[in-house]
TrEMBL record:
It holds the Pfam family ABC_tran. Belongs to the ABC transporter superfamily. Residues 2-230 form the ABC transporter domain. The keyword Transport applies. Keywords: ATP-binding, Nucleotide-binding, Transport. SUPFAM superfamilies: P-loop containing nucleoside triphosphate hydrolases. This is Heme exporter protein A. It comes from the Bacteria. The keyword Heme does not apply. PANTHER family: ABC TRANSPORTER ATP-BINDING PROTEIN (PTHR42711), ABC TRANSPORTER ATP-BINDING PROTEIN NATA (PTHR42711:SF5). PROSITE patterns: ABC_TRANSPORTER_2.
C-alpha cells in the first residue's frame, strides 16, 4: 500500500503541490490526470524517490520512503521521460546490466521474456543509440518489468508510441493488473489506459480536486474534468 499524507512541495516561493493526500491499495490501478503544469511530474518524482517533498510523508507498505533504502527502491518500477538506458549498449546488454543490478534470477531467460513482451526481438543486438523514440520507450518498459516490481509508476507512458506499441503497452498494463501489481499512471491523455484504471485522481494547480472510483465512461469523465479543471480534456 502507498500512503501519501499532506504532501506539499515548494520550489523557491512557488507552491507546486499543496497538501496532497491519498492512499493506493495493493493491486489497485490509479490514473492521475491533470493539465500542463498541474504538478503531475513533480508528484511522480516524489513518489519515485527522485525528489523530496517540502513537507508531508509517503509510506510504502508502512515504511516511510526516506527510511526504506535499497529494499524499497527494488519494489518500484519507474517509467518516466528519462529512459535510464545506455546509448552505446545493445538492448540485450542494457537489460543484462539492469538485471544484474537488481539481482534478477535466470537473467538470460527473463531478458528474452521481457524483450518479447515489448516486441523488440528483432532489435535484440542493436545499439540503443540507433533506436527510434518508440523503440526506446518499449525498451524502457522492458527494463521496468525486468525485476517484476510490486509497484509500477508510469509518467506519460504513451508518449511517442505508435498504434502497435500502444497495444503492447495496453497488454503490459492488463498483465500487471491481472498479476495484482499496484499501478500509478500519470497522464493527460484520456484516450489510452484510463479505462483500465480502478480509480481516477485529478490534479489541478497543485491540488487534488477529484478522487473517485472509475465508474465513468470517457464522455462523463471528460465532463467532470472540464468542471474540475475549467478546460476541456
Ligand atoms: N525546478 C523547478 N523550478 C521551478 N518551478 C518548477 C520546477 N519544476 C516544476 N516547476 C513548476 O511546477 C509546476 C508543475 O510542474 P510539473 O512538471 O510537475 O507539471 P505537470 O503536471 O507534470 O505538467 P506537464 O503536463 O506539462 O508535464 C509548473 O508550473 C512548473 O513550472
Amino acid at each position: 500500500m502507498i500512503e501519501v499524507k499532506n504532501v506539499t512541495k515548494k520550489i523557491g516561493d512557488k507552491v507546486i503541490l499543496k497538501n496532497i493526500s491519498f492512499n493506493v491499495e495493493d493491486g489497485q490501478f490509479i490514473t492521475v490526470l491533470g493539465p500542463n503544469g498541474a504538478g503531475k511530474s513533480t508528484l511522480f518524482k516524489i513518489l519515485s524517490l527522485l525528489m523530496k517533498p517540502t513537507s508531508g510523508v509517503i509510506k510504502i507498505n508502512g515504511i516511510a520512503v526516506n527510511e526504506g533504502g535499497v529494499a524499497l527502491r527494488q519494489k518500484l518500477g519507474v517509467i518516466s521521460h528519462n529512459s535510464f538506458l545506455y546509448d552505446s549498449l545493445s538492448a540485450r546488454d542494457n537489460l543484462l546490466f539492469y538485471g544484474k543490478m537488481y539481482g534478477v534470477e535466470n537473467l538470460e531467460e527473463r531478458v528474452r521474456e521481457v524483450i518479447q513482451q515489448v516486441g523488440l526481438e528483432l532489435s535484440f543486438y542493436q545499439q540503443v543509440k540507433t533506436f527510434s523514440r518508440g523503440m526506446l520507450q518499449r525498451l524502457t518498459i522492458a527494463r521496468c518489468l525486468l525485476n517484476d516490481p510490486e509497484i509500477v509508476l508510469f509518467d506519460e507512458p504513451y508518449t511517442g508510441l505508435d498504434q502497435q506499441a500502444i497495444d503492447i503497452l495496453n497488454n503490459v498494463l492488463r498483465t500487471l493488473k491481472q498479476r495484482k501489481r499496484t499501478i500509478l499512471m500519470i497522464t493527460h491523455n484520456f484516450e489510452e489506459g484510463v479505462e483500465l484504471s480502478d480509480r481516477i485522481l485529478i490534479l489541478n494547480r497543485g491540488q487534488l480536486v477529484f478522487d473517485e472510483a472509475n465508474l465513468y465512461d470517457l464522455k462523463s469523465l471528460k465532463e467532470i474534468y472540464r468542471k474540475k479543471v475549467g478546460i476541456s480534456a
